[in-house]
Design goal:
The chain has a three-stranded antiparallel β-sheet with strand order 5-4-11. Helix content is 49%, strand content 15%. The longest helix has 39 residues. α3 packs across α6 and α13 runs antiparallel to α14. The chain is extended, with a radius of gyration of 34 Å. The termini are far apart. The chain has 16 helices and 16 strands. The protein is α+β, with helices and mostly antiparallel strands and 484 residues long.
């Protein structure tokens, strides 16, 4: 091959290499720009405080203003707490201390009702799991009487990182809270609910510690020890869906302003345009020739198709663990409402898990209430205080049972009926004690004040009293008073 040709091929090859190098540099720069956004979002493997605050604010606004997010948030909280929650203690006050009275006293305390135990308060807390992804429940405790209250701390006021046991990152010690008011900026440490070391200094690294206000951290979708809101994954898709609907609405609005289409010869286009413009003036008309055609606008192909944006709504529903038919309040193309309701059952597994989280949360708080009632010198309960490392637990005397039972009512009557039928069938085998059968039946039927009713059907020794015996006892009492 001539030298001139070799030089030309070499020059062409070098030129190609330069082009490829520039293209690769552009690709690397593009990926670097994308990664830079994610790096700003995260710090040391966790979402940055700025990102969490911004996302929480977006979710809170969307839960009020965005129709899909609002409906999804309401449905999620209703599925978890819509039927309420029942709390009881497996204890008989006749054989020892009245542990149930302490638990019920806390649960029915007016202050606690406003901030935690009422259905309205629990719905508010579950809604916060959707917007912020976490709760910081402070439990101010009177050190003398053992009375416990509940206060929810804003997640944005809790600083990162959470202070944990240096030898066990899974054991939180303190939550650092910073807030600003008219008196300035304040910083305090709240101990974790289970952290009660034998030595409790008034400050830690120069920051005051509020030992009487321990905190229980409840987080969902955890990333780096902090919660991620249930709604966060749905926000972008909900905005896209609303944008789609807005664009279609604009198109329909534009098409609605065009009523007719005039078809004419090329040399009459300008004249026809002037005539069409003149139609907007009252009393004006339009002269047509035999070659002119005046037709109503055809909207074929421009109709509003509700299912065109359905994939976007599906992404929102998926992020919220809801079927799209339930989220949109629309059974879809099939028109079968029963189909939509059947599909909705698939979401119950996710909400059952959330109920389990709340069951554990309520039990932990009520266990702390019992412990505080024993540890406080003027507390209503007595027992033995046992220390295990940096934990304190109250052990009640024999005869006292502190087992907390947290029950979420059945979802619908069909489930309740099936449960009652199963209990009745089990009762026929005579292998389950009558008192247990009575408790199970009343729980299935959501009987209020369960412990009070059980007290009516048991004797002084806690044994079950059959209904015919109770009826005879009532008759005998009425006869003794001359009222039979």
């Amino acid at each position: 091959m001539p030298e001139r040709d070799l030089i030309a091929e070499l020059a062409a090859a070098n030129s190609s290499i330069e082009v490829l190098t520039e293209a690769l540099a552009d690709i690397e720069a593009s990926f670097a720009a994308e990664d830079r956004g994610w790096r700003k979002t995260t710090a040391a493997g966790v979402f940055s405080p700025e990102f969490r605050k911004a996302r929480t604010a977006d979710a809170e606004a969307a839960a009020v203003m965005d129709p899909l997010i609002k409906r999804g948030s309401i449905l999620r909280t209703a599925y978890v707490f819509g039927a309420g929650v029942q709390v009881s203690v497996r204890d008989d006050a006749k054989t020892g201390q009245d542990v149930a009275a302490v638990v019920n006293g806390f649960w029915e305390d007016e202050d606690v009702q406003e901030t935690f135990s009422s259905v309205q308060a629990l719905l508010t807390h579950e809604r916060q799991n959707g917007t912020a992804g976490e709760l910081f429940l402070a439990l101010p405790t009177d050190p003398r009487s053992g009375r416990v209250r509940v206060r929810s701390l804003p997640p944005a006021s809790i600083d990162d990182p959470i202070i944990c046991d240096p030898e066990d990152a899974a054991r939180p010690w303190f939550y650092k809270r910073t807030w600003t008011d008219k008196h300035g900026t304040h910083t305090v440490l709240h101990p974790a609910l289970s952290y009660r070391p034998s030595s409790r200094p008034t400050s830690y690294d120069g920051v005051p510690v509020r030992w009487s206000d321990p905190v229980l951290h409840v987080a969902v979708n955890q990333v780096g020890g902090r919660g991620v809101g249930d709604l966060w994954a749905a926000l972008g898709w909900a905005r896209t869906y609303i944008g789609f609907l807005s664009d279609w609405a604009a198109l329909m609005r534009a098409l609605s302003k065009v009523s007719t289409v005039l078809t004419t010869r090329g040399d009459r286009v300008q004249q026809a345009a002037r005539h069409m413009a003149g139609l907007s003036q009252p009393g004006n008309g339009l002269a047509l020739t035999a070659d002119d055609q005046l037709q109503a606008l055809s909207t074929s192909g421009a109709r509003f198709d509700a299912d065109s944006g359905r994939p976007l709504a599906v992404m929102v529903a998926t992020a919220l663990d809801l079927p799209v038919t339930t989220l949109l309040g629309d059974p879809g193309l099939t028109g079968a409402r029963a189909t939509a309701e059947t599909v909705a059952q698939d979401s119950w597994a996710a909400f059952a898990l959330r109920q389990d989280l709340w069951r554990m949360t309520i039990k932990r708080i009520l266990d702390y209430v019992v412990d505080a009632a024993v540890i406080a010198p003027l507390g209503p309960l007595h027992g033995t205080i046992v220390r295990q490392g940096d934990r304190l637990t109250a052990v009640l005397p024999e005869g006292d049972d502190r087992t907390i039972i947290v029950t979420f009512p059945e979802r619908d009557q069909a489930d309740a009926l099936a449960k009652v039928q199963a209990i009745v069938a089990a009762a026929g085998t005579e292998t389950i004690p009558h008192l247990t059968i009575a408790r199970l039946l009343m729980e299935a039927l959501e009987v209020p004040s369960l412990d009070d009713v059980l007290a009516l059907i048991t004797d002084d020794d806690g044994n079950f009293v059959p209904l015919d015996v109770l009826e005879q006892q009532v008759r005998d009492r009425l006869a003794d008073r001359g009222e039979a």
